[in-house]
Amino acid sequence: MAESAPWEIAIRFNNAKEISEAIGTIYDDLSSGIEPELAANKITFSSPEDIDHRSNANSKRWSAM
Question: Is the pLDDT of residue 31 over 70?
Answer without folding.
Answer: yes
